[in-house]
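Re: export button greyed out
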Amino acid sequence: MLERRKVQIREQGVDLDYTGTQVNYYFVCKRKLWLYSHGLEEEAESDIVHLGKLLHEHSYQRELKEIQVVRIKIDFIEGRGEIHEIKRSRKIENAHIYQLLYYLYYLKNYAGLEAKGVINYPLLRKKYDVNLDKDKEEELRKILDSIDEIIHQQKPPEAVWISYCKTCAYRGLCWG
Ligand code: SF4
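Workaround output, generated via the alternate export path:
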């Protein structure tokens, strides 16, 4: 059973106990979220993740300066309060958008900082703006509650085949 660590900061009911990766996996696959949250960090060995890191480093060598703020890791910051995330995907996905929304939510509630978000897609040669508003904050609170429920289940959710499984680091564990 995972230890419940709650970081209640500034506003009552604001839970900042998760990483951006967990918010991302919530959208990708609930089973992946559970496995990752229980310490099965196979991502480090995945070729696809390695490729993503190489792309990440080569595309943004000049600007790149990862910044860790307690539980979140921001790829780089530009100008006045513009936080950037780099994704190697060939399509814009909710997992990316909500991960960055969570960073904005985190900075606002942890440090009182109102930032803007930009997702950079080097393979698409596109940028995607992300902004946190009241509706998104409310939605994020519900998502975080749901993440909390999933990762505290005794067992991982059943595996359900999705196209993402083809490149998932947990493929062997789920479909071995
Ligand atoms: S292999 Fe598929 S079902 Fe298993 S964790 Fe990855 S995405 Fe989820």
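The domain at 20-175 is CATH 3.90.320.10 (Lambda Exonuclease; Chain A). The button fix ships in the next patch.
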